[in-house]
Specification:
The chain contains 23 helices and 20 strands. It is an alpha/beta fold. The strands form six sheets. A six-stranded mixed sheet has the order 2-3-1-4-5-6, sandwiched between helices. Helix 20 links the parallel strand 18 and strand 19.
Length: 626
C-alpha cells in the first residue's frame, strides 16, 4: 500500500483541526485557525509503518457540509473519530458509528478522546469504563487513545494508530468477542510453525527460534528475551514443557498475547515475511511465479529441486521403512491445500513405485514429482511455495528449483535430446495388454483379470540407460480419449515416443495399429517402436494385409519386440523405450531419407574462402612493399 488516507471526523468543537495542526507544527497552535484545514500529505519517515505516505483530510460536521463529508469518508482508508466531552462521546454511539455503517464503508475506525488536559479522569479504570463498551458494540473500532492537542500529548501516536490500522489491521487476526485468533490467522501461523520446525519434532528449539527471529526481524533474540518468551508461554499454556522448545500451542498462544496487547504489527511482520496478503492468503506472485516453457521444450526439476524433495521425503519417513504411509503423507502435505488435484485424479500413489505395503518409495516420490513438473510445472512451483522451498542463493526465486530443456525441433537429427524426463504413449487395441505393461513397469504382480481402461492412465519410473545415465520414463495409455488425444497437436508435440503395442496371440490386434496410422498420418512425425505383447502365448497369424514383421520392414524399421509381462526380461523393453525417446532419430520410419545436413560443409567452405582471401592480401602487401 502506497498511501494511507485518514478522514478526521467528529462533532464541531472537539478539536479535530487543532489535532492536525499540532501534528504538522509539532506544537499547539494557539492562534485561531480556519474551521476546516486543507488536505495535508505527509511523506514516509523512519517511524512510518510499511513506509507509506499519509494523507490527512479534515472535515466539517455541519449539516450543509454532509455531501462533502460522505465523499471523503468513502475515499478514506481509515477514519479518525474525535470526541472531547460527554456529549460528543454519547454521539459516537448514537450518531457517528451508525452513520458510517449507513454509508456501507468497511474501514477501521480509530477513536480519539481529545482535550484530555481538561479532565483528570485518565485512570485505567475510567478509560476502560468509557472506551471498552463502545469498542465492544462496534467491532470496526480498531483502537482507542486519549490525546491533547494543547499539551501535544499522544498526537503523533494518534496518527500512528491510524496508519497502523491500515497497514497492520487487527480485524483479520483477532476476534475480540471470542477473545481468540481467527481461524485463517491460526491456519497461517500453523503453516509458519511447520516451516520453521526444520527437524519436524513438534518443537521449535533455540536454534530454530533464532533462525525464525532473524528471518522476520533481522536481529537475534538475547538469551534473556528468549527466556522471557518461554516464561510467558509457560504461564499462559497449562502443562506446557518449554524445556524442549516452543510447541505449536505455545507458538499460537504467543501470537495471541501479541494481539491482546495491541502488538498485532508483530504478527503482520511475521505473516508478510512468509508472503501472506492482508486477506491471509499467500501472495499470487509467490505461489505462481512467472515461468514459461518455450515451444518444443519441457520443464524438469533442477538439482536443487531434486535435493529439496529428497530431503522432504527422508524427513517425514519417521519409521525409516523406505516408504511414506498415509499419516506421514498427511503430515508432509499439512501446509498445503492437500494433494495436487492431478494426483487425486490419477489415483496417486498407483501412478508410481510403491513398496510391498503399498506406500510410495523415495524412487517413486522423485519420479512422481518429475512427472508433475514435466506435465504441469506450475503445480510443482505452487507446491514448492507451500512446502517452504528456499532458493540456494538470495537473488534466486522459486523457479530455481526447475529448469527448461533445450527445444527439440528436429527429432530426425542424429544425437540425444537434452531431456531427463520423457513421455511415451502406449497405443494399441483393447485387450492388447497395455495396462499390464504399465503394472510391470511399476513392478506390480501380473493380474490376469481384464479391466478395460476408460480414462487415460499414466505410470512413471526411473530407467537406467546404457552407460549408467538415469532418466524418468512416463508411460501413458490413452483409454477412450485416444482419438481426441491423437488429433491434438499440442499433446502430440509433448510426446517423445509412440509405442505401438499389439497382442501377438490375437489375430485382430495388429490391424488396429495399421488403421490408426492411416487415420492419423501425423503420427509419422513421431519416433516409434513396435511391441508384440503376450509373447508367452502361442503366436498367431494377424488378419492384416502385411504381417507385423513385413509391415515394419516395409517402413525400414526394426521388427516388433516380442515380450511378456510375465518374463523377467520385460525391463529390457523399458530401457529400449527410454533409449528411443532420448535418441529419437533411431526410431523413425525410413521411408524417406532426411535431407543431408550441409551446415558443416558450408562452414568449412566459408573458412577455406576466408583463409584464401587472407593469404592473397598478405602476398599483395608484401609485393607492394618490395
Amino acid at each position: 500500500m502506497a498511501t494511507v488516507r485518514v478522514c478526521v471526523c467528529g462533532d464541531e468543537g472537539t478539536g479535530k483541526s487543532s489535532l492536525i495542526a499540532s501534528l504538522v507544527k509539532d506544537v499547539f497552535v494557539s492562534n485561531k485557525i480556519q474551521p476546516v484545514l486543507p488536505q495535508i500529505t505527509i511523506p514516509p519517515s523512519i517511524g512510518t509503518p510499511e513506509n507509506v505516505t499519509t494523507t490527512i483530510v479534515d472535515t466539517s460536521a455541519r449539516p450543509q457540509d454532509r455531501t462533502t463529508l460522505r465523499k471523503e469518508i468513502r475515499k478514506s482508508n481509515v477514519i479518525l473519530l474525535v470526541y472531547s466531552d460527554h456529549y460528543s462521546y454519547e454521539r459516537v454511539a448514537l450518531f457517528w458509528m451508525p452513520y458510517f455503517r449507513s454509508l456501507g464503508v468497511n474501514v477501521p475506525v480509530v477513536l480519539c478522546a481529545n482535550k484530555s488536559d481538561l479532565t483528570d479522569n485518565t485512570t485505567p479504570q475510567v478509560v476502560e469504563d468509557e472506551m471498552l463498551p463502545v469498542m465492544n458494540e462496534f467491532r470496526e473500532i480498531d483502537s482507542c487513545i486519549r490525546a491533547s492537542a494543547r499539551e501535544h500529548q499522544n498526537v503523533n501516536e494518534t496518527f500512528f494508530l491510524c496508519q497502523k490500522a491500515v497497514t497492520h489491521p487487527i480485524a483479520p487476526l483477532f476476534d475480540y468477542k471470542e477473545g481468540n485468533l481467527k481461524p485463517a490467522c491460526v491456519s497461517a501461523l500453523k503453516r509458519i510453525f511447520y516451516l520453521c520446525d526444520k527437524d519436524q519434532d513438534g518443537y521449535l528449539n533455540d536454534d530454530e527460534i533464532q533462525e525464525f527471529q532473524y528471518k522476520c526481524f533481522d536481529k537475534p533474540l538475547s538469551p534473556e528475551d528468549l527466556d522471557n518468551i518461554k516464561l510467558s508461554i509457560a504461564k499462559s499454556v497449562p502443562r506446557s514443557d518449554t524445556s524442549k522448545g516452543v510447541d505449536m500451542r505455545g507458538f499460537l498462544q504467543l501470537n495471541k498475547i501479541y494481539a491482546e496487547k495491541g502488538r498485532h504489527e508483530t504478527i503482520w511482520i511475521i505473516l508478510r515475511k512468509y508472503h501472506y496478503t492482508d486477506s491471509l492468503s499467500l501472495e499470487d506472485s509467490f505461489i505462481h511465479p512467472k515461468f514459461d516453457v518455450p515451444e518444443y521444450a519441457s520443464a524438469e526439476l533442477s538439482p536443487a529441486g531434486y535435493r529439496f524433495f529428497m530431503d522432504l521425503f527422508l524427513l517425514f519417513d519417521k519409521d525409516n521403512d523406505g516408504g511414506l504411509n498415509d499419516q506421514e503423507l498427511d503430515a508432509l502435505f499439512a501446509p498445503t491445500p492437500g494433494l495436487p488435484h492431478s494426483w487425486v485424479e490419477s489415483s496417486f500413489p498407483s501412478t508410481t513405485v510403491r513398496n510391498e505395503a503399498g506406500h510410495i518409495t523415495l524412487q517413486g516420490w522423485l519420479a512422481q514429482w518429475s512427472m508433475t513438473t514435466f506435465l504441469e510445472p506450475k503445480t510443482t512451483l505452487e507446491y514448492l511455495a507451500y512446502l517452504g522451498f528456499e532458493p540456494p542463493h538470495a537473488r534466486e526465486t522459486l523457479a530455481s528449483a526447475l529448469k527448461v530443456t533445450k527445444p527439440r525441433k528436429r527429432r530426425r537429427r542424429p544425437g540425444r535430446v537434452g531431456r531427463n524426463v520423457v513421455l511415451c504413449y502406449i497405443i494399441g487395441a483393447s485387450g492388447a495388454g497395455k495396462s499390464s505393461l504399465l503394472d510391470a513397469f511399476l513392478n506390480r504382480p501380473f493380474d490376469g483379470l481384464y479391466n478395460p481402461t476408460i480414462k487415460p492412465r499414466r505410470a512413471v519410473n526411473s530407467v537406467e540407460l546404457q552407460g549408467g545415465k538415469q532418466c524418468y520414463l512416463i508411460l501413458e495409455e490413452l483409454g477412450e480419449l485416444e482419438p481426441a488425444i491423437l488429433e491434438n497437436k499440442a499433446r502430440l508435440d509433448s510426446c517423445d515416443l509412440i509405442c505401438y503395442a499389439y497382442d501377438s496371440s490375437d489375430p485382430d490386434s495388429f490391424s488396429h495399429i495399421v488403421d490408426l496410422r492411416k487415420r492419423y498420418p501425423q503420427l509419422d512425425d513421431l519416433p516409434s517402436i513396435y511391441t508384440a505383447l503376450k509373447a508367452d502365448k502361442d503366436k498367431t497369424t494377424q488378419r492384416s494385409e502385411l504381417q507385423p514383421d513385413q509391415y515394419t520392414s516395409s517402413l525400414m524399421m526394426s521388427t516388433p519386440v516380442h515380450v511378456s509381462v510375465t518374463w523377467n526380461s520385460i525391463g529390457e523393453l523399458f530401457v529400449a523405450l527410454a533409449e528411443a525417446a532420448t535418441n529419437p532419430s533411431t526410431a523413425f520410419p525410413k521411408s524417406e531419407e532426411p535431407p543431408p545436413d550441409r551446415t558443416s560443409l558450408y562452414l568449412a567452405l566459408g573458412a577455406t574462402t576466408c583463409a584464401a582471401v587472407a593469404a592473397f592480401m598478405i602476398w599483395r602487401r608484401s609485393t607492394n612493399s618490395a
